[in-house]
Design goal:
Shape: globular
Oligomer: single chain
Number of helices: 22
Number of strands: 11
CATH superfamily of the largest domain: NAD(P)-binding Rossmann-like Domain
CATH topology of the largest domain: Rossmann fold
CATH class of the largest domain: Alpha Beta
Distance between the termini: 28 Å
Helix content: 40-55%
Structural class: alpha/beta
Largest sheet: 8 strands, mixed
């Protein structure tokens, strides 16, 4: 039946494409449910087309390009599904096509570069330095961006904004340092030009977007009457807080609910600690206890109690009234409990050594500096330590170091794992003993609802 239906791009009425004024690095489901969705809903959307480049693989670009950039956002709640065709991505491009990326970044028409390249991609791209010096094609997202910015300088195309949408504390300045350091290694003059002409905008982004399944593809075909090989499923909730300058302009994202603030740190900490921190607890503790989705893990009293205890600790360091912490916590419980969003714990569990540095460590440090144990934050680390002991083939930037730690046992193993997150805390025997003692909190027993899926 599905094969007989028209492709999405042939089902909808022909439409004029917006000019490319935004370049995005990291074409994935979250980008499409978030930045592309916000751009679609901006009042001036017709002026702001997105050229979106993939990261490691070309697949997403190939599928989306075949659909003329169009895709369906399926908003999924307990009350049902709604469907919307989004057309703000006017070019979907293989990230390896560096020439096209450079051309677009160097174009005076381009005003904004957005990033969803994952936390691990902000490390120093040493391998790209000789490639950039030799005028060859770099292999990392930031290396490719630096080459594009060099071409923009040479073309005298004017300033632009780089907007990091990754789950990093102070992500705009993280991006600024990463890009600046890489440029400095290649060309000091380029680094100076970037410092003077490129604005780095910090953001806090939020919209749960689970991996699309074959069943989701079939649902769109059945309900919408067309074939979409690249739909995105997302919760109805969405949030975007931005702080920084846009020297060449930007879409009216505020029409879709985006918020622009002077100081982003309280908002990003609220999200990193309360939402992402809870996700990490559920990812490791939940899988240890036999669960596969966020909703199933949250229904486990042991996991829920661990989340609430961590939230109590983190909330003590999120004091601003405008953050609405009690309401935010209540909303998170509702969102996590959405039984129709199959947000898989294995997906959340990736790249833990990078994520826990931002989610657990700041709260643990703040609690201990205040004279408290930090047990809630330590329990998150302990759940990860227990999880990596029994889970081979981890996707983590420090997977080799994790494997090395697993070759020893007892407190030495725990200390080695904590050192991957924070070397100073690893030298604190009280912290190591606390984490070690909590590692059995989520013993892989079968709880009353273990193994159930949302």
């Amino acid at each position: 039946m599905t094969a007989e239906l028209p492709l999405l791009s042939r089902h909808v009425a022909p439409h004029a494409k917006a000019p490319v004024r935004i370049v995005h690095l990291g074409l994935g489901a979250f980008h499409r449910s978030h930045q592309a969705w916000y751009t679609q809903h901006a009042g001036d959307a017709g002026e702001w087309g997105i050229a979106s480049f993939t990261g490691r693989r070309p697949d997403a670009a190939e599928v989306l390009a075949a659909q003329d950039g169009l895709f369906t956002v399926v908003e999924r709640s307990d009350s049902g599904d709604s469907f919307e065709v989004v057309g703000s991505i006017v070019e979907a491009v293989d990230g390896a096509d560096v020439d096209r990326l450079v051309d677009l970044v160097a174009s005076p028409q381009t005003a904004v570069v957005t990033l969803t390249i994952t936390e691990a991609a902000y490390g120093f791209g040493a391998d790209d330095v000789p490639l950039l010096r030799a005028g060859e094609k770099p292999t990392t997202p930031l290396g490719r961006l630096v080459r594009g910015l060099a071409a923009r300088r040479d073309a005298d195309a004017g300033p632009l904004a780089v907007v990091s949408c990754d789950n990093l504390s102070d992500n705009g300045n993280v991006a600024r340092r990463a890009v600046g350091n890489l440029a400095m290694e290649v060309d000091a003059g380029l680094a100076e030009w970037i410092d003077a002409n490129v604005s780095f905008v910090s953001t806090s982004v939020d919209r749960i977007t689970p991996r699309t399944t074959d069943e989701d593809v079939q649902l769109v075909a059945r309900e919408c009457g067309y074939r979409d090989e690249a739909p995105v499923v997302a919760e109805p909730f969405h949030n975007w807080v931005l702080s920084g300058d846009f020297p060449a302009g930007r879409p009216r994202w505020e029409d879709a609910g985006a918020v622009f603030v002077d100081h982003i740190e309280p908002y990003e900490n609220r999200k990193l600690w309360l939402l992402n921190g809870a996700h990490s607890i559920l990812a490791y503790a939940g899988q240890l206890r036999g669960h596969t989705t966020v909703a199933a893990a949250l229904a486990d009293p042991v996991c829920l109690q661990a989340v609430k205890e961590f939230w109590d600790e983190a909330s003590r360091h999120l004091a601003a009234d405008e953050l609405g912490i009690p309401e935010y916590r209540a909303a998170l419980l509702d969102r996590f409990g959405n039984s129709r969003i199959a947000h898989h714990l294995a997906q959340i569990a990736m790249d833990a050594s990078t994520k826990l540095r931002m989610r657990a460590i700041p709260v643990l440090r703040a609690e201990r500096e205040a004279g408290r144990s930090g047990e809630g934050a330590a329990r998150m680390i302990a759940a990860w330590a227990a999880y990596v002991e029994s889970t081979p083939g981890l996707q983590d930037p420090q997977s080799e170091a994790v494997a090395e730690a697993n070759r020893v046992s007892g407190l030495a193993r725990t200390a080695a794992l904590v050192e991957l997150l924070d070397a100073e805390l690893a030298r604190d025997s009280a912290v190591v003993e606390l984490v070690h003692g909590l590692s059995s909190s989520f013993a892989p027993e079968v709880s009353a609802n273990a193994g159930t899926a949302a």
